[in-house]
Known about the structure:
Blueprint: E1 2-6, H1 10-22, E2 26-30, H2 33-42, E3 47-51, H3 59-69, E4 74-79, H4 89-92, E5 96-101, H5 106-119
Parallel strand pairs: 1-2, 1-3, 3-4, 4-5
Amino acid sequence: MRVLIVESTNDLALLWSRYLERQGVQVTVSTRAEQAIELICDTPFDVIVLDLVLAEGSALAVADFAQYRQPETNVIFVTDTTFFSDGSIFALTPNARALVRTQTPPEDLAAMVAHYGRAA
């Protein structure tokens, strides 16, 4: 299974990627939207773990581009805000499968990645 993590906070991206790699997942990390879009052009991913609030670029643009280039790829959004807590993210991005808090334990995030990775 191939997973793209798009997260501006290096420590958090490293925590998630190490946990997923121990589960046998191939992980690629991007800290910027532009870089993530380039990766989506070159590599097929089963799941994208995408922070809604990136330091550089738009997470929604990444999700939209992934829907265009890799329509079977599932996106798990993570956030530390309550902005999309009403569920509207699912209306905006058809490839959205989950919206979880940034503080979600890595083992829970890995379980969601495993679930949606199998569905891809």
